[in-house]
Specification:
Strand content: over 45%
Length: 214
């Protein structure tokens, strides 16, 4: 049993990527092995674009690299129902540069709630539900206003490009949460007497977050 405070979390935005590497095959395993002409080292972070919808547009950490393969750490593809054999090929691209977003006053998550289908048969006098999908998920950041900050400029640039971009949360107790989404940024600061001027950024996630405990 443990509890944690968010104090000390560092958020960083991916601001430079390497060229795409072609993934010619992806295995069904407790941690998927990707076949790729490899230039990566253990600990690199990569965005995976895959024929598997559950793996597509997610960011993973590289594990056990060789000259021809890498392991996508934590990507469990043992179910051939969810991850059809032979369908996981695609591309990966290494994140070369992370730019810290400083002066964050708060970060909240919305969405991700389970959705349900309600049904009832003619002979029944009650309704039942089954889970279907989860709602779209997004992050909202409130940042103390300073246009000179590197993180401010990075958010502004990726919001203008509308490119899918990775966000890494480094947790104070160790580990990471990796997000991948499309950013929006409002440069108009809040103007409330006696309170810090702040701007807002949002990230609409394009794939499920990936979390590593260490």
């Amino acid at each position: 049993m443990a509890v944690s405070l968010p104090n000390g979390i560092v958020l960083a935005l991916a601001t430079a990527y390497a060229a795409n590497l072609t993934v010619t095959a992806a295995s069904n395993a407790s941690e998927a092995v990707l076949t790729v002409t490899n230039t990566l080292v253990a600990g690199d972070f990569v965005e995976f674009t895959s024929g598997w919808s559950r793996a597509n547009n997610r960011v993973f950490r590289v594990k056990s690299p060789s000259g021809t393969t890498i392991v996508a750490e934590g990507l469990d593809t043992t179910s051939t129902t969810l991850y059809p054999a032979g369908s996981g090929a695609g591309t990966i691209r290494k994140i070369n540069t992370w730019t810290q977003i400083t002066q964050i006053m708060g970060c909240t998550s919305s969405g991700g709630e389970p959705q349900y289908q309600t049904y009832s048969f003619l002979e029944q006098d009650f309704d039942s539900q089954i889970p279907t999908t989860t709602s779209a998920q997004s992050l909202a950041l409130e940042i103390a206003d300073d246009p000179a900050l590197a993180g401010y400029q990075a958010l502004k640039a990726v919001a203008q490009s509308r490119a899918t971009t990775a966000l890494r949360a480094t947790l104070p107790a160790g580990g990471f949460i990796l997000y991948n989404g499309i950013c929006a940024f409002d440069e108009t600061p809040s103007l409330s007497k006696g309170n810090l001027m702040a701007v807002k950024a949002g990230i609409a996630l394009q794939g499920r977050p990936v979390r590593y405990a260490t």
